Structures are given as structure tokens and as C-alpha cells.
């Protein structure tokens, strides 16, 4: 009888825990990850996947943003494209993947992409006032990432939620549109893609046909509702990226899934133009308007 009661209690607790999970969490793991080559790492906050030779996606599946940072390795040095939430130590993970010196470049400076910038000494940044302002850090934006419904599973052991903040960081090299970063045997071209933020960029690895799209494009709801978003600039930036499709084999976005087909980019251009022309009906979501186009959508005010 005692065993039966314990079993009943375990089942009840399990059902309660499942009921407490946010809806987005119940959809994980995303099936597409099963097709990717996973690289074991000791820190359970992260999952690491080898996308191409010398390219690793560092995924944070336990927070709503599902942020993806990329370690891009050349023959002489490496570049970390974004440093994630700063909830756990991404630098320690990177050091298990390469012994080369590592520089940082952010797809943009929203808090979920610069969280561990402070751990690195060599940081590239776009020469914008928005970048300079965000380099000072922020506690309010970071704390919002821990709000109810934002987390899936446990935070790392020893993590101090009350003290969590985006720490200030120092930019050592200022970049502009068209600049190139030579890693040795791999050159990355910086493409300014303002819209989502004033300092948003994409990275083009022409030799390998890779386009790192940052937050300008990813599968899922693309956030276009913050005060710093410029929709005119976003349309122009997406047109610019879509023009690169003949030269690109693979898109590597910064949220949800680390791989996408380049054919999405012209579809995004058409979709955002239809939205702005009033041709698409929105779904109301938490005070925002979501315009859905199959695998991606736009979340707007």
C-alpha cells in the first residue's frame, strides 16, 4: 500500500510540473536538432552542434529566446558571433572547442546576445550610438529574461538571479559596413542590416557559402516591435540579404534553429512588404500583432 501511495505521489508531482511548464517549453526539443551533429559539453545550460567544419552553434534551449551563438574558426584565430544570455559561462565552453585566440563580434547589442561579452578582451563593435549605449550594460533588460514563463528547466547551479545583469564591456575595434575580418583561411564580411536594431549586422563567409543572419531572420516570430526598430531600414536590409541568395548555401540564424535554407530570404522580403501594405491580417498576441507566414512570422506593435 505504501508503494502504491508513493507511486501516486510521484505521478501527481510529475503532472503538476508538466502543467507548470510554459507552452513553448513543451515543444522542445525541436525535431530538427536530431539531424545535427551534437558535440558533448559539460555545461548543461548549453547544447553545442557542429554545423560545418570550423563552425559550431552554441544553443541555449532553457530560456524563451533560444539564443544561438556561433564559434567560427579559422587557421589563425577564431571569432565568437554573440556571447548569449550570460546566464552560464560561454567562454568556458568555447575553450573546449578551440585553443586559438577568440575575438567577439555581436550580431547586435540586445542583452540576450552580449551577456558574456565582459569575459572577453578582444571585442568588435559597430560604430553606432546604440552600440555604445548598450556596452554600458543593463539590469532591467536582463531581469526581464527571468520573468515567469521565460525559463524551461532549472537555472545553472550557483546562478544568482537577483544579481543577474548585462555587465558593461569594452569594445576594442570599431567596424563599419563592408569591413572584413580575416581569421586565416576564412574571411568574414560585415554586412550592416539595420532594422531590428540600428547596429544589426549579418556575416558573409563567401568561400563557404554561409550567411549568419543574426536577428534579421530566423524561423519563428521575428521581433520588430521594440522602440529602436526601424521598419523602413528592415525592408532595405532584407532586400540586401535576399540579393545574396545565389552566393549562399546555408543561413545560420541567431534563434531557435541554427540552419535554414537561403530561399527563405526572398519570401521574407515579400512578406514584410505585404504587411506594410495592409494585405495581411494580424493575430493579436499579448498586446502585439503577429503576422504569420508559415515557418516565420513578424511580431509587431
Give an account of the 3D structure.
The protein is an alpha/beta fold. The protein has one domain: Ribonuclease Z/Hydroxyacylglutathione hydrolase-like (Metallo-beta-lactamase, Chain A, 4-Layer Sandwich). Strands 1-2-3-4-5-6-7-8 form an eight-stranded mixed β-sheet, with helices on one face. The chain has a five-stranded mixed β-sheet with strand order 9-10-11-12-14, with no helix packed on it. A four-stranded mixed β-sheet has the order 13-17-16-15, with helices on one face. Helix 7 packs antiparallel against helix 8. The chain is globular. The termini are far apart.
Average pLDDT metric: 94
Count of distinct strands? 17
Distance between the termini: 57 Å
Q: Cα-atom Rg, whole angstroms?
A: 20 Å
Q: Any guess at the CATH architecture? A: 4-Layer Sandwich
The strand order across the widest sheet is 1-2-3-4-5-6-7-8
Number of separate domains: 1
Distinct helical segment count: 8
Please report which band the strand proportion falls in: under 5%, 5-15%, 15-25%, 25-35%, 35-45% or over 45%: 25-35%
SSE class: alpha/beta
**pLDDT < 50 runs, ≥5 residues:** 1-19
Helix content: 10-25%
For the largest beta-sheet, the strand count, sense and barrel status come to:
8 strands, mixed
- SSE string, helix = H, strand = E? HHEEEEEHEHEHHEEEEEEHEHEEE
Instruction: Label the overall shape.
Output: globular
CATH superfamily membership, which one? Answer: Ribonuclease Z/Hydroxyacylglutathione hydrolase-like
Task: Assign the CATH class.
Answer: Alpha Beta
CATH topology: Metallo-beta-lactamase, Chain A
Amino acid at each position: 500500500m505504501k508503494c502504491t501511495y508513493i507511486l501516486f505521489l510521484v505521478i501527481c508531482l510529475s503532472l503538476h510540473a508538466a502543467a507548470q511548464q510554459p507552452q513553448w517549453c513543451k515543444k522542445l526539443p525541436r525535431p530538427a536538432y536530431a539531424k545535427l551533429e551534437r558535440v558533448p559539453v559539460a555545461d548543461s545550460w548549453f547544447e553545442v552542434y557542429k554545423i560545418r567544419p570550423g563552425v559550431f552553434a552554441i544553443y541555449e534551449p532553457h530560456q524563451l529566446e533560444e539564443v544561438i551563438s556561433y564559434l567560427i574558426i579559422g587557421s589563425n584565430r577564431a571569432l565568437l558571433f554573440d556571447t548569449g544570455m550570460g546566464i552560464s559561462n560561454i567562454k568556458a565552453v568555447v575553450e573546449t572547442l578551440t585553443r586559438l585566440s577568440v575575438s567577439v563580434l555581436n550580431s547586435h547589442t540586445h542583452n540576450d546576445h552580449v551577456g558574456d561579452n565582459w569575459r572577453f578582451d578582444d571585442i568588435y563593435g559597430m560604430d553606432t550610438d546604440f552600440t555604445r549605449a548598450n556596452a554600458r550594460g543593463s539590469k532591467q533588460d536582463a531581469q526581464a529574461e527571468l520573468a515567469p514563463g521565460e525559463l524551461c528547466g532549472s537555472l545553472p547551479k550557483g546562478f544568482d538571479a537577483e544579481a543577474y545583469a548585462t555587465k558593461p564591456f569594452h569594445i576594442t575595434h570599431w567596424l563599419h559596413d563592408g569591413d572584413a575580418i580575416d581569421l586565416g583561411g576564412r574571411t568574414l564580411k560585415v554586412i550592416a542590416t539595420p532594422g531590428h536594431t540600428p547596429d544589426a549586422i549579418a556575416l558573409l563567409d563567401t568561400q563557404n557559402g554561409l550567411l549568419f543572419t543574426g536577428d534579421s531572420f530566423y524561423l519563428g516570430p521575428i521581433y520588430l516591435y521594440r522602440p529602436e526598430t526601424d521598419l523602413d531600414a528592415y525592408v532595405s536590409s532584407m532586400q540586401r540579404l535576399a540579393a545574396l541568395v545565389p552566393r549562399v548555401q546555408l543561413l545560420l540564424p541567431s534563434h531557435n534553429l541554427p540552419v535554414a535554407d537561403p530561399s527563405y530570404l526572398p519570401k521574407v522580403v515579400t512578406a514584410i512588404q505585404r504587411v506594410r501594405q495592409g494585405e495581411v491580417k494580424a493575430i493579436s498576441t499579448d498586446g502585439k500583432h503577429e503576422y504569420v507566414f508559415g515557418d516565420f512570422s513578424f511580431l509587431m506593435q
